[in-house]
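A favour, since you know our structure tokens better than I do. Would you make up a two-line entry for one protein for me to read? Write everything out right here, beneath this request.
=====
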Amino acid sequence: MRTAVRAVFLAALLAALAGTPVRPVHAKSPDRLVSSIEAILKREVFAPAIVAIDIRDLASGRVLFEKNAATNVKPASTMKLFTTAAILDAEGHLAAPPATTVETAGRLDTFGRILGDVYLVGRGDPNLSERFEWRGEKSPFDQLAKDVRDAGITRIEGRIIGYDGLFTDETIPDSWTADDLVWSYGAEVSALSGFDNSLELRIEPGEREGDPGRLIVQPATEFMRIESRVVTSAEGTKDKVSLTRPLGSRHVVIEGSVPRLGEAWTGAVAAPEPTFFATTLFAEALARHGITVRDGLLTSREALPKELRPLASVQGPAVAEQIRVVNKESQNLHAETLLRRLGLAAFKDASVESSLKAREAFLKSQGVRIADTAMYDGSGLSRSDLVTARAEVDLLVAMARHPLAKAFRDSLAIAGVDGTLKKRMVGTKAQGRVFAKTGSLSHVNALAGYVDAVSGRRFAFSIIVNHHTRPSREVTEAMNEICALLVDLK
């Protein structure tokens, strides 16, 4: 026996001297969990940072680990958990939200003409895009145009009016920056939106060095002028691409180079004037289906004429499907749109003030401790948002007992499987066992959600790190390790 023990000791000593990496200790007991997490938090990346953590057992409610759990920190996109839970509670009983409609008060004559204006009425569905299947047409705008054409209409003797009066004109949430508004993640909010109020851009290299890059824009539209000055560089070089769009402008200039035989450059730019953007997409779809418009396009927030009748409509997905887009893809525009729908549901008022009050009332009703927090938007892009890890876990615990708990959990990204966690925890025990919302801003990373342990236990957790200055990868890898510890916990 002594010989065996001595042999094991010598083997371990030789391995250490040889520089063999030591495998991390797995936290299979609560005490080991605490010591293992504390060891992770001693890493250099966390030295200047604020780290807020709350981890609880879902069955007992027992706190397994906490650090600065009641400290206000910037949540980044984990803010979306509060918004999606609230709208699921408010609209989860509905089969589907109100439809986007095409309506008119004009008479249809025997020549196929509508004698008057036609309204495109937005009711807060952010999913007018090709994200879902839409009956016979891939694009909902083409579906609407086809239905108008099938009604026997070939000409509109009036205007196309995009209506977004359901929401207030607060299109830019508090503390969003000018830089945000250039890119798709900072798209402005409207009750009438199309293709996430943004354009997907792709530039492929040319055949030879010096050739112009090939620009592809989706959706194809004349609404914005995209000017590409990108050329093809030598094979093996790195792409160097910059994009400029003056605030409010429809003119985008892309400059730089992409390497021959290399990967295409991709980006997504926000479309200004989102209501007019959606109206333009509809008008272009009408033209594709052979329908002409005499008097052009405009947008309106004035009260709709009472004598309007529907010509066509397109139904959005159920709210459970909509929050999947928000939480799995971390879609800011959709989160802001759903926040305003919450104000409508509670107070018949989609102002930001009413919408925030409606969300606050829901959170308090669920026992979420938010007395000292500060929430200014629905998505977490606002730099003024301040919440606690404790409040996030309060919400997660409450939603685990909610009648729509499964729909909420199913909306979260799954580690190593989909959404913003698709490339994280791959090949580890945590793959397929962590269901969470990610968050990231400059010097901020966050992760909050649920863990299913191998033992059958389930945990709710929130990890928020603010003010770190090292690469985000170092923070997210530490978060992944903490999730792995929970997966192993007995």
